[in-house]
Amino acid sequence: MRFTAYIITVIFIHTAASEYKLPPKIIAQPPADVIGFHTKKDKQNATTLQIVCEAEGEPRPEFKWIKNGEEFNWRAYNGRISQLPDQGTLEFSKPQDEDVGEYQCSAINKWGNATSKAVMLRKINDPKPLSIHQDVSDVTVDVVEGSRLNLSCHSPYIFWFTADHLNNLDSINKSRITYDPKGNLWFNSIMKSDAIDAYNNTVRYICVWKTDNDKTFKIYKYFTLNVTIDASSASLNETEPVKHYVSPKNMVAQRGKTTELFCIFGGTPLPSITWYKDGSKLQFNRSIITMNYGKSLFIKQVDFEDKGTYTCKVSNGVGLNQSHSVELEVESKPYFTEELYTVMDIIEGEKIELKCVARGQPEPKITWKYMEEDISKAPHNQRIKVTPNSIIIDHSKIGDGGYYCCNASNSIGYVNNYFNVNVLGREPELKKNVKTVDGKTIKLPCYNVPCLKIRWFKNDEELSSERYSILKTGDLEIQDVLFSDAGLYQYELHNHLGKINAKIFLIVKQHTIIKNEPEDVTVKENETAMFRCDAETDSTLKLTIVWQSNDKLINFEIDSRFVQALDNSLIINNTTESDSGNYTCIARTSLDEIHARATLNVHKNEKYLGVESIAPPLFHRAQAINELPQPTAYETNAWMEKFELKRKVYKITTPRSKATFEESTTPKTLEGKIDSWQIGSVLALLILLLIIINVSKISHDHHIGKYKVGKKKPVVDRDNNR
Fold this sequence. Notes:
Structural class: mainly beta
Helix content: 10-25%
CATH architecture of the largest domain: Sandwich
Number of helices: 6
CATH topology of the largest domain: Immunoglobulin-like
Mean pLDDT: 77
Strand content: 35-45%
Largest sheet: 6 strands, mixed
């Protein structure tokens, strides 16, 4: 009967608790509208920042994040961004440019949801040297609290900052304050805090402009605000949206570059802005984001599909809604849409066909040259057919060999591709091409054997500079190649075939560099390590980045803990001590490669002695004493958790060794110094208790209320353990 009453009571309590309704309530959120961060190369100064979000509710709410109006998946950042346990707070390790944006947290359970205020995460540029313009002026502006204000600073390349009493610059990060591309700084609903900071210091607004070398800022004007309170300003508490600045109705962007559309409106309350493209609500992604609290639309790496009509719709619940549309056109310098063959070997008499297909906006015009001469001006030849996208030569002859150039150009720019055609028959007049990168030492080979009495020329002038050396093999060596070394070379020699002239075309491309080298990393076991490696090379070369561990190429298919991310970063999950060593980033192209190395140190936490590390001697002692099967470390940990030993502290002292050990409050670990005899004794006791429990479960009909595994803790005789 008592057992039945207990069941009924439990069911009643559970039912009552399940009916308790408590929708989510935000109890902690960011104190400011803007959080700024610096990006520093010095790893010792690497920053970690948090966007706070905590909520209460019953049942416990789950958390979701929105970034720039879209659901934000922080798990996709390979551990660099994490969410703190039992709350929604986001933690950023080493914030980067891609983290910039507007974040908002939502707490959700079955009874409702709650949303935190939006916060803008922005990058604060490191201060640059300041100098004062010779005509700098200091202006004090009287303004009434709650009114709007426009500070003008008409000069090219204008930027706005605030400065404290020590003249330290900081970026302007307030949703009410925005500056447009023409140098105007717009204030919506002036507040006292716009003139006086939290430390009661005067805030100065500084209009600066960049010098041509982009290394220094020059102060152009100082502005100080004198904010007064006027009873009539109360009428400004609610005003309909007012246009401050918008982008022109027609704009042109270049493919591959960035562009920004502005839609700056004021009003009280501050208006909300929604962006549309061609009549549909704009879907944001990593290439299209909003900036300035939605007042501007930023498009990275513009492409042809970004062409269209962009509309911003503005509303604040007061008066009429506003909107503005911008027609965006996309221009592009020419680029080739098909892979081009630069070297062709043709047997005399075969057909030569050279294709050149390019795209651009405006549509590019294609012209052809042969040996640097315009083909359209050459004498008519029935064997040669020239079209805008191709050259076809029927019944090729030896004299058709040489360099053909396809040039695609429009009003934005141009692009060239060279075809080296070798027509093979009798001993040809050799024409080859050689590619290299600047800064290397290159050899232009002599293709004829033997290469006797050889002379090398460029632009019909014999080479004599110290940078040029003719080797014994007849090859021409050029040291520290420059871009100006590109061009047509030729050599003249005499051998058993007689006098031979050959031409070699040297193409020089930009060498590969590593912009951001990997840095040394120190982690603990089972943590995640990350090495970054950012490289760039000539736009016409294919760049490949591979990783080595201790000078051996990493095979990512063999060990899934090693991952090469989309940005070519190396991520090592669940690190072990054996992962320690040197890791090398190799950036290579078909013409060169460059290496950058960093070191990984994985430390084992020696403060606690894990069960896994002492398991072999422990289980050996248990088998010798009790003649029981040897369990695994996993089973040992499971027993400890089952009996909740991780919550207890036991001290055991043996007469023989007088050694003492205590079980740690840390789950699945033992703290102290333990010899194998003591551990074997404890394990034997645990195994004996487990056998007793299993026997008890067989006769549970007689003892069902006496003992329940997982509900009531087993009794341990501590005196006997001594």
